Amino acid sequence: MSELEITVIVVVGTLALLGVVFWLLPWLLDRPVQVPGAVSVSELLERECHSAPKVPYTVEQAHRVMQLRIDCDTATCPAKYAAFWTVVDAGHATPDPRVVR
Questions:
Q1: Any idea where the domains of the chain sit in the sequence?
Q2: Given Cys at both, which of 10, 26, 32, 62 links 83, Cβ 3.0 to 4.6 Å?
Q3: pTM for this one?
Q4: What is the pLDDT of residues 16-61, one digit of tens each?
Q5: Counting beta carbons within 10 angstroms of the beta carbon of residue 88, is it exposed (0 to 12), middle (13 to 18) or buried (19 or more)?
Q6: How many helices and strands (H and E) does the chain possess?
């Protein structure tokens, strides 16, 4: 093997090692961790930012809102809260006796 070939092999090996150290390892370490069942911040904001209606829902509208906001909680979603109590007032649902309005 000639001196030139050895030099080329050493240079290529060094560049490959530098690439691993300065590109691949930081990329592997900085990747976001995917947690099963985790909820993104934007999804949380979307769940909590459905405003209550200015005019009370009709029963039909309330049923539709309940379907659309199935993933929302009445404690954090004003739209679902208003829809839920509209459906309850219409006699279409019965809340748990522990639920306070």
A1: 1-31, 41-89
A2: 62
A3: 0.53
A4: 888 887 887 787 777 777 777 777 766 766 655 688 889 999 999 9
A5: middle
A6: 5, 0
